[in-house]
Protein 1
Amino acid sequence: MFGKIKEKVIFMDTLSSKRLLLRAFTKDDFFDVIALADNWNSAPGPKWDKFPADERFLEEICTKENYYAVYLREEEKVIGILAINGICENEKLDLGHVIHSDFQNNDIDREALEMMVEHIFATMEVKKITTGNFPYEKQIAPLKSLGFIYKGTSDSSTYEPIKSLGYGFYEETSDCCTYEMEKNDWKKVNKSKNYCT
């Protein structure tokens, strides 16, 4: 069973690379978040995988430590959201990601996820990271390139993190692809890097 994120579980650090910052959201990100929401809501996928383009959503992501803004230094704007959606009792973490379509399949989405996965495994008591995504190739491509293993496709209403976190289905269900990465497998295929600033 997945549990909601508690403040004591997440240690919000700013993660940094040459191109990217993964950092907390601020009120100044409002227009970038609106643009990201508009872009994501027009992409293929069900309503449960979308988010509203409004101030209430920005307020939520600004006040919770499980949301990271993906900030592209060169463009000086937020181009994505990474979210630690929950951690279950057997030390499995659910990771969500949304990247603006202009920055998918160009290594930026892969780099953001790599930074986050490395940070999770280096700083948290987690043995496995799982993701649940609508089968949209641009969304799952960076997971595959990082070595995440496809575990199957099921009805979204059976995906445990979505159920336990109370995400609304709007009377709509869809296919949900699960990909996973074990901590031991990550260590084998990825060189450890420190992205903390």
Note: The longest strand covers residues 77-88.
Protein 2
Amino acid sequence: MCFSFIWVEQVLIWLVVLCAVIALLRLVVTYVLPQIGLGDGIVSLVTQAIRIVIWAIVLIAVIVFMFDLISCLIPSGIPRIH
């Protein structure tokens, strides 16, 4: 069932949701931080830190996704760790 149409549909939906969440977080952070009175230097630092955390989470998700794909291709004799 790894490469069925339902699986592809779910992957595409998750990609759209992930892109939307990243865009919304970037938008909210750049709007909210100046509103609470933080200076430009702090806003820039916090924005960059949040972007790094977001991309770290995205890359971890990509690594998990890639290993799930590899486990679909390898025969079922190798145990999966969850």
Note: Residues 37-72 form one domain.
Protein 3
Amino acid sequence: MNFYLFTYILLFFFTLFILYKRQLIIPYIHVGWFFNILTFTYYAFPLIYIIYWPENSFKLLGRRFNDDFIKDVSLLLLVCQLSFIVAEAFVKREGQIKIYARKYYQIKPIYIYILLFCTYLMFFNRWSSVGGFLKVIAQNRGEYMNDAAESSGLFSRYDILFYVVTTLLIYNVCIAKDFVKKNIFLIILYILFLVLPIIMGTRLILLTTVISLFAGLFFTKRDYLERNKLRILITGILLLFGFSIFSTVRNQLTEYFAYGKFDLKTEDIVLMPSELFTGVLSHHSIESGVNNNGFTYFKRLTPNSIVTNLGLEPTIPYSQQIANESIYSSGVAVYTIPFLTDLYFGADKNLVYFLLLSIFLYLVFTKVQKRIYKKNVIYLFLFYTLIYYVLRVESSVWFGRFYLSYGVLVMLFIILGKKIYKVDKLNNRDLI
């Protein structure tokens, strides 16, 4: 283990201690947990695995990583962790926040039914241009994602409606004790929809749902989490290994839907989740042949429709650049680009810019989280539904999901024409 990585790990645990102390005085999950833990998950853990089990990593990933690459990524991790610590130093220390949602109003289930029905329609419309859902599940994701993205429009963005549905559903589950019992059919329809992307090999939607539910329970029913923490931990571990096993099963499902055969062998099952290596693989792929076009982070945040209207050249997602240019390309966009890699190359590989950008984004999300908590609790639920994407995919993807999802939710509130809840400066909560 090199000096940079060792120092990063020490600072990582130091930052977790700072977050733990900070968490004691705020009623919602601090966004810093996501920045720190997911960065460790997608970069530090894979590096440790590659260093100590190089042959296993080669069998799993199909490529080797030289010492210079490991050292460079370790340095980036260290700089990134320093940025988190500096950002936390800027966060104003406060006493216990005393602004609570005193009265919660349940969103009528009929609204969620309508939105979920529209989500189903948009989901199947999304894949109609590439032969339909049944044809899609008989292919690997890389074979249809590009064509589907090129031919789809705003009315096939089922993911945006799904995030809103998830937010409203989890909000109701958390504030109303008998909501699940009274709306069991709605819950079943929602779970069935979760299954559809999983069959296609997309696990992120399920993961964001779990995160949103956990954050909602932490905010409204923390005592429930305390009573069931061991059960929740075991469930999380099983879910992690389940995701890993399913990545193997998914390949066999593709064979089954395409050719009618299913031949799963025990030796083909890998318990080490390949998902954890996404950051290192995408970073290595960009380093291996992709042309970086200067300081482009904020330009990539801007939708290409606006960029084009301004007379500027539209940006190409890193995932597509890897497909077109990297020596490790398979010819299709199959990579997603986590936070550290997106930020580093968006800052033109300048460590100073990288440091400043990381501090800026950390502070922005910390302030936004605090503000929406005070203004509208449902916005906070949506925040947790989407925050995983900020650390998991590149800026051009997560930013669009943020502004479209919040836009839909705001329009929904305007259409409903009623106040969802009222805020009072009290020291207690009166939940219904």
Note: The chain has one domain: 3-425.
Protein 4
Amino acid sequence: MIQSWPHSLQFDLWCNLTRTPEQFETVGHWCVRVLPKGWSHVAGFGIRQNTLGSQRTPANVSLREDTLGGEDNLSAYIQAQAKMIGRYLGSPEMAGPQSISFKKADEAFLFLVRHAPVETGPILHAQTYVRFGNWIGIVTLTTSDSALDTVRPDYDAFLQGLKVALEEQSGSMEDIVKGHV
């Protein structure tokens, strides 16, 4: 069974970017404003936990984005992703998608994937999907099951400082602040 996250997991969005994007590390439309102690930015990817002298696999958080295509909604998009993940990982355990509150988003979901590679032991991928119009943002925490309790506070802090900057069709900048409540 996948360790569940609180059902009341909620996010708040606020449209106000007070710094220029050049002041932040960015991945696509994502602006990384918080880097937890013991983590490093990985250009074009997200962040990775530093594990000097440790034999365990470091946790990481990837930032991705996509555009909603033929799917009608984010849930259908996630189901298509789940099928692809299932083919790639064999028989992973999956939970969700679970709807989460994400202010001003059209849709938002949490989706969990757990598998157990022989080399590393059980691994958890906690994926947060959020949709604004046709834009989809995906934040994926990847960590060993045994490290989840240790990594979770860093992940939550990272999410609190994460921003998404989307260009509106009018050409003005819409800045969306994502904060964990």
Note: The radius of gyration is 16 Å.
